[in-house]
Write a structure and sequence with these properties.
This protein is α/β, with parallel strands linked by helices and 288 residues long. It is 24% helix and 22% strand. Strand 3, helix 5 and strand 4 form a beta-alpha-beta unit. It starts with a helix and ends with a strand.
């Protein structure tokens, strides 16, 4: 399910959203963000690990370099050991590398590196499918994906597409391809982890019930927490086949795998948020 402007308007009956927009409340909430802090034990760790998780930047349609610069500054102030980007970094047709975005991401500072996965909107930006901000589909979308992976690498961001890396002797991070437009391979992402503590990054939480093996902790984005939430109702629209189950926060996947679904930082469909503040998540992971 792709959430569109029509879905949101239909779910809200038009009136609530119109009132929100008229008062400017939704637009104001859309561009404020906060830091959420979480402490968890992670089996296999021998020393603490500080993880900054940024997801759903959506650079291009409603988000510019100024927003990304503020998120990067806030991330650097947290002094994370590693930065993880959870997909949907892009949200516009990419005929040329997004240099303003790459310039800001290049400023991220984390001694163990910065890693990313792709999401469904990234695939629109590659040209895998068409849309109002993407134009017509491209026959060479896979080559565009490879080009952007190389550009991200030059900016210091390693894209993990069904692959993983050792962060330390006691920690492994794996990342999967997108659930909707890629071929996510959890086993491939965690291959080589051995006895290390495992972090799995996958854009779409709908993968959680079908994890073929456990992970120490899974990090997801995609849902934006619904982006627009109403008192007593929650989010009228969540881009998940499971409805509210994986809308946001701490959830559980197959094999008892704990997972955190971030509300994300950017915007999709409409430049509005309500009762759903954009978040930069800092995870303090400790030995179990």
């Amino acid at each position: 399910m792709t959430v569109t402007r029509r879905h949101v308007l239909r779910a809200l009956g038009g009136g609530s959203l119109a009132a929100l927009a008229a008062g400017g409340a939704g637009a104001a909430q859309a561009y404020r963000f906060g830091v959420t802090r979480h402490a968890r034990a992670l089996p296999g760790l021998r020393a603490p690990l500080r993880v900054a998780f940024l997801t759903d930047l959506h650079y291009g349609l409603f988000i510019g370099a100024g927003s990304v610069a503020a998120w990067v500054d806030a991330t650097n102030d947290l002094r994370p050991d590693v930065v993880l980007l959870g997909g949907d970094q892009l949200d516009a047709r990419m005929d040329a590398p997004p240099e303003p975005l790459l310039r800001e991401l290049r400023r991220l500072r984390a001694p163990l590196g910065t890693f990313a996965v792709w999401g469904n909107h990234d695939y629109g930006s590659f040209g895998r499918y068409g849309g109002r901000q993407y134009g017509a589909p491209r026959a060479d979308w896979a080559a565009k994906r490879a080009e952007l992976e190389a550009e991200f690498a030059r900016a210091g961001v390693t894209v993990l597409r069904d692959a993983g890396r050792a962060l330390r002797d006691d920690a492994w991070v794996g990342g999967t391809d997108d659930l909707w437009f890629g071929t996510p391979d959890v086993t491939g992402a965690l291959a080589g982890a051995g006895g290390r503590a495992t972090l799995l990054v996958t854009h779409n939480p709908d993968l959680l019930p079908d994890l073929p093996r456990p992970a120490g902790l899974t990090l997801c984005g995609h849902t934006h927490g619904g982006q627009v939430r109403l008192p007593g109702l929650g989010a009228p629209v969540v881009p998940s086949r499971y409805g509210q189950r994986y809308a946001m926060g701490w959830v559980q996947g197959a094999h008892g795998t704990p997972a955190y679904v971030s509300r994300g930082l950017g915007l999709s469909g409409l430049p509005l948020r309500n009762l759903c503040e954009p978040e930069l998540a800092l995870l303090h992971l400790n030995p179990a």
